[in-house]
Each structure stands twice: as structure tokens, then as C-alpha cells.
Amino acid sequence: QVQLVESGGGSVQAGGSLRLSCASSSNTYNIYCMGWFRRAPGKEREGVATITSGGRSVYADHVKGRFTISKDNNKNSLYLEMNSLKPEDTAMYYCAAAWAGACYSDSRDFEFWGQGTQLTVSS
């Protein structure tokens, strides 16, 4: 069982930056895949970025060049650095983890989820 706790959400203006953190109860070195997903009001959950234990990262087209996913195995933490934020980035952001799978944007591959942290971007 892996417990995940997100933090770092808040309110920012368009063009601003923010970093989300996700603390894992398990050693992140051993977790094959971790990722960030988001759900905006009235929309389905969508993948944002994923990273494998080997460091391969994949980004959704709408965040490429603006967001960076990273992991610190010494701190058992996952991060999402977000720059050039847009109002359409407003959503609840979730951290997720999986022991196996393709490690792309399919949320069905992820067994463990955090409670989420809210990001609001104002124009």
C-alpha cells in the first residue's frame, strides 16, 4: 500500500509559477511509475505528466514546455514544477503511483492516489 499526500496548491495569476509536491509513504525508488493528473470542474480527469523509476518522463501536450515532473528518492517525494500558468490549468491536481504498467496518461494503470491539491489560476 502506498499513501500519497499532495501539497503546494494555491491561487496564482496567469503567467505565474507554482510547485506541487507529493509525499509518498513508500520509498519512491521502488515505485515503477508516478504521475500527476488533474480534474477541472465539469471535466474528466486527465493526465498531466508521468515519470518512471528510470527517469523517463511523459507530458501531456497542453503542458509540454511549461511543466516539469521530477522525483527525489531521498525525500520520497514527487514534484510538479509549473510555469507560465494559464487559467485553463485551474483544476484539482492528484498524485498517483503504480507498481507496473505503461506509465502514460491512462489513469487506470495507477493503483494509488492522493486526495488532491487545488490550483486556481486567475487571469
The description of the largest β-sheet is: 7 strands, mixed
Count of helical segments? Answer: 0
Shape: globular
Task: Please give the number of β-strands.
Answer: 11
Q: Approximately how much helix is present in the residues?
A: under 10%
- Global Rg: 13 Å
Features:
single chain, 123 residues, mainly beta, seven-stranded mixed beta sheet, four-stranded antiparallel beta sheet, 11 strands, 49% strand
What does this structure look like?
The chain has 123 residues and is mainly beta. Helix content is 0%, strand content 49%. Strands 2, 4, 5, 6, 9, 10 and 11 form a seven-stranded mixed β-sheet that branches. The chain has a four-stranded antiparallel β-sheet with strand order 1-3-8-7, with no helix packed on it. The model has no long low-confidence stretch (mean pLDDT 96).
List the helices and strands and how they pair.
Elements: E1 4-7, E2 10-13, E3 18-24, E4 33-39, E5 46-52, E6 57-59, E7 67-72, E8 77-82, E9 91-98, E10 112-113, E11 117-122
Parallel strand pairs: 2-11
Antiparallel strand pairs: 1-3, 3-8, 4-5, 4-9, 5-6, 7-8, 9-10, 9-11
Quick gist of this model?
With about 120 residues, the protein is mainly β. The chain has strands at about 5, 10-15, 20-25, 35-40, 45-50, 55-60, 65-70, 75-80, 90-100, 110-115, 115-120.
